[in-house]
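Email to the structure team, subject: Magnesium transport protein CorA model.

Hi all, the expression group asked for a predicted structure before they design truncation constructs. Nothing fancy, just the tokens so they can compare against earlier work. One-line instruction: predict Magnesium transport protein CorA, return tokens.
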Amino acid sequence: MLKIRASKKAGLPPGTMVYVGKEQAGEAAVSMIQYSEQEAEEVSVDVRNLQITVPENKDRVTWIQVTGVHDLALVENLGRIFQLHPLVTEDIVHTLQRPKVEDYGDYIFVTLRAMHPQDEQICLILGPGYVISFQENPSPLFDSARERILRGKGRIRRLGAGYLCYALMDMVVDSHYHVMERINEQLEALQESALEDYDEETIHGVHALKGEVFRLRKSVWPLREMIGRIQRSDSGLVSREVSVFFRDVLDHAAQLTDTVENFREMLASIQDTQLSSLSNKMNDVMRVLTVIATIFIPMTFLAGVYGMNFKYMPELEWRAAYPVFWIIVIIMGLGMVWWFKKKKWL
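Reply from the structure team: attached below.
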């Protein structure tokens, strides 16, 4: 589980870069692809001597992929090269951000959360002719986009930087489906176990899933508002042709939101089922105990009467008193058991 250390930022002025994610042992890496509709090439980047030039040709797009936001110097250098606002570089290294979109006029800053193959924050910067993506750790999340660009598949090389930003956002949003499918399978298993038996394993499973669904909800809930802001942006970075494709991400976001809400209702239903099962078991136990106590009440009464130390009790002098007492007790007990079974109380 991610260890939250956002308290390290307490008291610092706005724009101060403080990395609050997991400790990273490896070095940060930067890769760059420049492409147009006709061609695409990978450009080597020296992280220690960072020099990046974005072509002035409007038909040519530059995609800079940064892996490892724990390297504050690298993020600061990129911020200097692309003239990013200090609040943007601060949010990039603050890996506990809420998903959001901020329009700075010359560029759009997007923060998302990917759920597969690993839980990490993804930041995107869409500018004129370029897209910068920031990942916490190396992962194959954007490999398909990279392959499509290098092989010239689909529209990605024709529709510019706005479409590349859409494609990357779509991959991040779609990464939630892997987690959704796993949670759905676990919920189905929990529903069956909740109906069959009430045990601690089911309780622990429900609480664990509640935590996962809560994290999913935090990641999914702001997506519709974010995509709407991108579509309504006046920056001109997203053309009308590309804006249509963001509707697809919007549909996925709406579907994910509905699924998360369904998961919450299913978890609440499982908990209600568990409580109902526990209540029914307690009622069964109390019914059995009540029946047993009711059977022994008249027997206890007879034992109490003949256990009193009175001098004159004619029955005590009778030779057959003891066996008659037991015959009466047994008949009363059997009669009450028969009556309870007839009433279906046993």
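The chain has a mean pLDDT of 86. The longest helix spans residues 240-305. Ping us if the truncation boundaries need rechecking.
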